[in-house]
Amino acid sequence: MAEQYSGQAGFLSDGNPGRGCLVPQVTITSDGDSREITEEDLEEEVNGRLRRKLSNSSISSNGSSTAFDESEDDILSDNETKSKGIVTLEHLGDSVDSAEQINAWWKLKTIVSCPLVTSQRRRLSWVQLAGHKGSFKAGDEGSILKKFSENEKLCFERLKEDALHSFVPSYYGVVERDGELFLKIKDLLAKFDLPNVMDCKMGVRTYLEEELVRARVKPKLREDLYNKMLEVDREAPTAEEKKQKAVTKPRYMQWRESLSSTNTLGFRIEGIKRGETCKTDFKKTRSKEDVIQVFKDFVEGNKNITNSYITRLEDIKQALKASEFFKKHEVIGSSLLFIHNHTERAEVWLIDFGKTTPLPDGQNLDHYRPWEEGNREDGYLWGLDNLLQTLSSLARE
Q1: Inter-residue contact 39 to 188 (CB < 8 Å)
Q2: According to the UniProt record, where is the region Disordered (predicted)?
Q3: How many Cα atoms are found within 13 Å in the side-chain-facing hemisphere of 118?
Q4: Which residues are registered as beta bridge partners of 146?
Q5: Number of domains forming the structure of the chain
Q6: Cα-only R_g, the chain
Q7: Which of 150, 167, 186 is the last residue of a domain?
Q8: Other beta carbons within 10 Å of 78
Q9: Which of 295, 274, 263, 285 lies closest to 396, judged by CA?
Q10: Nearest partner of 149 among 330, 357, 365, 324, judged by Cα
Q11: Between the CA of residue 222 and those of 225, 226, 335, what are the distances in Å?
Q12: Lowest-pLDDT range, 9-13, 49-53, 133-137, 241-245?
């Protein structure tokens, strides 16, 4: 499939918006043909039906975030997830039998993909576990298509010339398939056989300050989130919430984070896939000792893999400190994706930028200071330091 490059504005060598970075914009049609997506196409689609249908985030010109209607997770209750197991399985092209489906591509919470292991590796199938249905589709060999988000698109474009570019998935532009827009990005697991995957959500909160403001101005009671709260702790709701049988989304998210290591360590484990087993029940994994044990099980006590992860995280930390993008963005709901396999190959990548938003001009974050409403601090580097300490403790055992 041929890709055509549009004259889309990119970034200068200093990382600021400018000209000179061409991003491929390609439309995939049902017969395999492609056409260039122009800036006019994007503006028309994003401002029209497809934006309303697809985009779960956007930013305003002054740097504040808007239209974050839903979080990346909390779409299904735990009981729904457990009963269904596989939320959705999409077949694209050749069909696969049930045995192949078992080894299909998985997404943990934020819908991470894993490769379908077959002798020919010809076609892909997708499984989403506890995530948004329809958020991912198979792309060309070595790529995946992620549901379009204007906010995430802008982040990928800004990251192309940033110090972090080597630690985020390569971005190949916007594609259209079956009338919907997707971001085409590198498949991080394409070169792994039978990978083990862990998704760690970084920071001291996974909700935007704007969500708190909206909830106060126009509170929306959610019965589904109330029921999810009961599944974890039947005594958690207040007397008023029990009477209403509903809670607001910020209330639920703040409560949930108070239970997990998001609150105590600045990161939390969202999900793990090892072999044919997926686990996402880490809501009460709070203490450093508990987290160390989870990592120990994940790497099966392999110190070579552990040390490879430590080295990669140290490199990421240095890149974050040098990154202009990182200084000027509030990083919410983003994850570190850990990948290794039996060959002891191990990698860590920054993923999920749908809720990463730019700051107003002149404002920077240090990502260490405690969060107070209004300062927009996310605690990312504090969480990364704790993550490094956790793995270092494991390596010394």
Answers
A1: no
A2: 1-75
A3: 18
A4: 136, 183
A5: 3
A6: 21
A7: 186
A8: 15
A9: 295
A10: 357
A11: 5, 6, 26
A12: 9-13
Residue type, 377: E
Residue 115 resides in a domain: yes
When pLDDT is cut at 50, 70 and 90, the band that residue 219 belongs to is confident
Pair 113, 138: CB distance under 8 Å:
no
207 with 167, same domain: the answer is no
- Domain of residue 43: give its range: 10-72+140-186
Looking at the fold, whether 83 and 200 belong to one and the same domain comes out as: no
Asked whether the whole model's pTM tops 0.85, one would answer: no
In sequence order, what are the residues at sequence separation of 6 or more whose Cβ sits closer than 8 angstroms to the Cβ of residue 249?
Answer: 71, 74, 207, 211, 215, 220, 222, 225
Shared-domain flag, residues 105 and 222: no
- Does 281 reside within a domain? yes
Same domain for 234 and 113? no
Distance CA 105, CA 98 (A): 13
Which pLDDT tens digit goes with each residue over 58-102? 222 233 333 333 443 433 333 333 333 322 223 333 333 433 333
Indicate if 37 and 85 belong to the same structural domain. Answer: no
Mean pLDDT, residues 118-143 taken together: 54
Q: Which residue has the tokens 């990948």?
A: 339
CB 180 within 8 A of CB 54: yes
Residue 253 — very low, low, confident or very high, per pLDDT cuts 50/70/90? confident
pLDDT > 50? residue 325:
yes
